[in-house]
DNA sequence: ATCCAGATGCAAATGGTTTGCATCTGGATA
DNA sequence: TATCCAGATGCAAACCATTTGCATCTGGAT
């Protein structure tokens, strides 16, 4: 069960381990993929108020427990924050797969130079395609 | 003036060159950066109905005249579709700068293999940082 | 067992985007 | 150039994800 793991994580993030937070975090850990607020509502059997889910996800994000992913225009997705990675999305069925790749350092340095920004902190990289089932 | 250029582009896209479309496309060409629906409303002196802007942008997108950029959670941005490129956004002031870089082919091939998708059609790559003015 | 700052639930408000419908117009045709 | 109509526009209402105000509840410290 991920409830104990979730509780531990909440404690180390200095957050009160409420029923709702444990449930949400455990769900995010269990599913291990980006979920929408609706998804989270369904997977927790609508036992949580929508506003609570939004507020909780925001809190989690601030503490680095989850990461927000913008794959979908229209609604936000959140995933348990493990290692930095990227995704590929099937434009037909919406399936999301994790990718174990990242940008080469050379490209990141190139951006630092070309942008003339003082800092380059992060990047979003998402791929879109058609999965085998949807060909 | 970009109006004639816009009219030409509309014609070759087989779209009726209405006053509104010419105005919108000319504005997108002139600004040469991602604009929100609100931005477009202001820059056209609120002479266009919001619904018209949304519908027109959707039409333009289908015809490949504009590209939608998701930099901002909350509202969509659209830019005149020139060459494929990416952006860097200042997380303090919101300034967007074009980047003349793209993913190395090797990485794209890596994604093709690792994803096991039938096709990989496109990617979104955005950088976030702090520009010199905002340090 | 008590207590209270912070968390939750509920409902209403917000803001971007979409849609139904009556009217208008670009541009093809005669 | 005048006519015509499919498609475009304007307006207002509807939608939907997200946020917010506020009264009540609760985790965990005392």
How would you describe the overall organization of this protein?
- Two copies of one chain form a homodimer.
- Chain A has 135 residues and is α+β, with helices and mostly antiparallel strands.
- The first copy, chain A, folds into two domains: 3-80, Arc Repressor Mutant, subunit A (Orthogonal Bundle); 86-134, Dna Ligase, domain 1 (2-Layer Sandwich), CATH 3.30.1490.190.
- Chain A has five helices and six strands.
- Chain A has helices at 3-12, 19-31, 37-43, 50-62, 105-115, and strands at 35-36, 66-69, 77-80, 86-90, 96-99, 119-130.
- In chain A, the strands form two sheets. The first copy, chain A, has a three-stranded antiparallel sheet. Chain A has a three-stranded mixed sheet with strand order 5-4-6, covered by helices on one side.
- In chain A, helix 1 packs across helix 2.
- The first copy, chain A, is globular.
- The model of chain A has no long low-confidence stretch (mean pLDDT 95).
- The interface between A and B is large, with 37 and 37 residues.
- Strand 6 (119-130) of chain A pairs antiparallel with strand 6 (119-130) of chain B.
Characterize the overall form of chain A.
globular
Number of helices of chain A: 5
Helix content of chain A: 40-55%
- Name the beta content range of chain A: 15-25%
Tally of separate domains of chain A = 2
